[in-house]
Recover the amino acids of this structure.
């Protein structure tokens, strides 16, 4: 009976030991060597730091980084804490993270313009310019008649499936382009 | 484990959507190596300024799909009250029951595992025809749609022509 208890407690003791070791290691690392690349996964994302610093210029970046690291990098949680408590906890003096250079005009200038991508047209996007001039596979009946067009769409072969999907995409775009061109011709014809 | 459930479900939806595609919709994974990223083409609904246009969009599925909905982003230019400038689509079916950023949506309209990619794409298609004025994602577009409908329609039609390379 007591033997069984003994064997049972050994794994749990080991587990406890491992847990303690990890905990100690964790504190050790965050306190002394935050600058080492090993802690990269735990260092706050500079973009997030910048984002919060822009919203709350009165809060220091060191405080922001400290808070982000403790809450697992959640911008929302840090923002919430600043709003509800008016500030953040002061990090321990030993906490000296690499502070990102505060708002160099270069980074700020480029980031807002980035999310405005130039829209490329579908013909370029799907690389269809070579197929534009070629006549439609089945001139009019193929487009209107769905029964005929529904020949084969699914295949059990992965590559074949991919090719079929690709062809359906291309046909959809090319058909739309042809219809638009047709409409254009009619419009110009009426105007003349 | 959870992600294999998600991939199985997505594969099944892909198969159904391909074998029996709704009018004006083509959708499937960009590559089957990543079943969580899809690309869809939606045809602009007839009788609207979007008519004749083809609108590509990207769908990103979470690993716990279908518990949570995908996000959907138009890849080209879409001038519409419910589409953000970066193309992100904002409609109720794409919002999980828990998060209701605008506090106006009925739970039944929101995402639940009984919805599907097909239902999302059909909802987005009807959203193109009938913008939801209550929760504009693109305030400028919403204002133009409300106050200067003619200008709105002209702008959309121009976008359609540009996107098909006819200028």
């Amino acid at each position: 009976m007591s033997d069984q208890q003994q064997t049972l407690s050994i794994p749990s003791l080991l587990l406890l030991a491992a847990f303690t070791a990890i905990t100690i290691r964790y504190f050790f690392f965050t306190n002394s060597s935050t600058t080492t690349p090993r802690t990269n996964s735990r260092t706050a994302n500079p973009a997030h730091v910048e984002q919060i610093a822009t919203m709350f210029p009165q809060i220091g970046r060191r405080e922001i980084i400290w808070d982000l690291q403790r809450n697992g990098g959640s911008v929302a949680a840090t923002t919430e804490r600043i709003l509800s408590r008016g500030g953040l906890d002061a990090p321990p003096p030993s906490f000296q993270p690499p502070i990102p250079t505060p708002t160099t005009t270069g980074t700020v200038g480029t980031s807002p313009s980035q999310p405005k991508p130039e829209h490329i047209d579908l013909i370029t996007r799907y690389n269809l310019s070579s197929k534009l001039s070629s006549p439609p596979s089945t001139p009019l009946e193929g487009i209107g008649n769905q029964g005929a067009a529904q020949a084969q769409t699914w295949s059990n072969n992965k590559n074949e499936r991919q090719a079929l999907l690709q062809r359906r995409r291309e046909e959809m775009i090319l058909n739309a382009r042809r219809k638009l061109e047709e409409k254009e011709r009619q419009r110009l014809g009426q105007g003349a | 484990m959870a992600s294999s459930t998600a991939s199985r479900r997505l594969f099944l939806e892909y198969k159904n959507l391909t074998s029996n595609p709704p009018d004006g919709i083509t959708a499937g994974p960009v590559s089957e190596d990543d079943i969580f990223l899809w690309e869809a083409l939606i045809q602009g609904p007839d009788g609207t300024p979007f008519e004749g246009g083809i609108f590509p969009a990207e769908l990103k599925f979470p690993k716990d799909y279908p518990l949570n909905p995908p996000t959907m982003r138009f890849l080209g230019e879409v001038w519409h009250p419910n589409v953000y400038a970066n193309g992100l689509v904002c409609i109720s079916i794409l919002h999980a029951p828990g998060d209701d950023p605008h506090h106006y949506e009925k739970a039944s309209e929101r995402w639940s595992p009984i919805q599907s990619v097909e239902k999302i794409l059909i909802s987005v298609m009807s959203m193109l025809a009938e913008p939801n004025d209550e929760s504009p994602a693109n305030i400028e577009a919403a204002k133009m749609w409300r106050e200067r409908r003619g200008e709105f329609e002209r702008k959309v039609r121009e976008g359609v022509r540009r996107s098909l390379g006819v200028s």
